[in-house]
UniProtKB/TrEMBL annotation:
Gene that this polypeptide is encoded by: ftsX
Subunit structure: Forms a membrane-associated complex with FtsE.
One of the Pfam families matching this protein, by short name: FtsX
Gene3D superfamilies per the UniProt record, alphabetical: 3.30.70.3040
Protein name: Cell division protein FtsX
Domain ABC3 transporter permease C-terminal residues, every copy: 185-300
Alphabetic keyword roster: Cell cycle, Cell division, Cell membrane, Membrane, Transmembrane, Transmembrane helix
Main subcellular location of this protein, as a coarse class: membrane
Domain FtsX extracellular: from-to ranges: 56-161
Segments passing through the bilayer: 21-45, 177-203, 223-256, 276-298
InterPro entries, sorted: ABC3_permease_C (IPR003838), FtsX (IPR004513), FtsX_actino (IPR047929), FtsX_ECD (IPR040690)
Length: 304
């Protein structure tokens, strides 16, 4: 009987304040879409960093068959050349600049490629012989890259020396800025959503002040009186969160997986699975914000 009463009160409140409820849904939808976008952008940044970003600063790529550089004119790197490069990396002359290094074979390069580009449609078309061997070098001081470049770029068996961190930092810094902008917009929109929920609940409580007064006189508990108001805000916010999750899923499905991953097969993109992992958090966040806002508003405007 009590459950039926609470449900009827919720339905009545939603009908009476339909325009405000729709506003709450829309504002929550927009704000949580920005929150979700910022979270997905960070996932994208972390995925693009991949296996080596935080550990490798310089890659010394070795020659393969039919490489065009002058140092690869004799063909693929030989075992003697490979050992000479390894010996140079461990020598006393280079040791002050090199913190550590590791050799990556073609099979290891393929395994790392498949890990990093697992969501790309080309992941199964690349074979080990298409990827170069390399030495992945961590420098004591990243600013000393030019010294390593001068020492190794002219060695036989070395195709090219690449400062991978420098190439990536510009991209990731731009993406981090975009993520911060999304977080900032999301914070403003969340404040708007909280204020709108509070206003909606206050109007709902005011329009039903006669009913709540009667309920006080007949001895209804505080929970029974306040719960319908709180659930009205929570329901509206959850609907907005579900819409936000749906919009993010559609973007991942049709824009990222359906278009970008095909147009840029060499880039590792997030997938709809990442959105599905994020969706419960968005729903929980929407419900939490609405619940807390409603409860605080009722404490002030609905004395029981």
């Amino acid at each position: 009987m009590r459950l039926a009463f609470i449900l009827s009160e919720i339905a009545s409140g939603l009908r009476r304040n339909l325009s405000m409820v729709v506003s709450v849904v829309l504002v929550t939808f927009v704000s949580l879409t920005f929150v979700g976008s910022a979270a997905l952008l960070q996932m994208q940044i972390n995925q693009m960093k991949g296996f080596w970003y935080d550990r490798v600063q310089v890659a010394v790529f070795l020659c393969g068959e039919d490489y065009g550089s002058a140092t690869c004119a004799e063909g693929a790197v030989t075992g003697e050349q490979r050992d000479g490069i390894r010996e140079m990396l461990g020598s006393d002359a280079v040791k002050p600049y090199v913190d550590s290094f590791e050799y990556e074979s073609q099979d290891q390069a393929l395994a790392h490629f498949r890990e990093q580009f697992r969501n790309s449609p080309i992941v199964d078309t690349v074979t080990a012989d298409q990827l170069p061997e390399s030495f992945r070098v961590k420098l004591v001081d990243p600013e000393k890259y030019e010294i390593i470049n001068e020492l190794f770029s002219s060695m036989k068996g070395v195709d090219v020396v690449v400062d991978q961190r420098e190439l990536l930092e510009k991209i990731f810094s731009m993406m981090n800025i975009a993520s911060l902008v999304a977080v900032g917009i999301a914070a403003v929109m969340i404040v708007c959503a909280i204020l709108l929920v509070a206003t909606t609940i206050r109007l709902s409580a005011f329009s039903r002040r006669r009913e709540t007064g009667i309920m006080r006189l007949v001895g209804a508990s505080k929970l029974v009186i306040q719960l319908p108001f709180v659930l009205e805000g929570v329901i509206a916010a959850v609907l907005g969160a579900v819409l936000a999750a749906g919009a993010l899923w559609a973007v991942a499905q049709f824009l990222i997986e359906g278009r970008l991953s095909r147009e840029y097969p060499g880039t590792a993109f997030i997938s709809t699975g990442d959105v599905l992992l994020l969706a419960p958090a968005l729903v929980a966040l929407g419900a939490l914000l609405a619940g807390v806002s409603s409860a605080l508003t009722l404490r002030r405007y609905l004395k029981v």
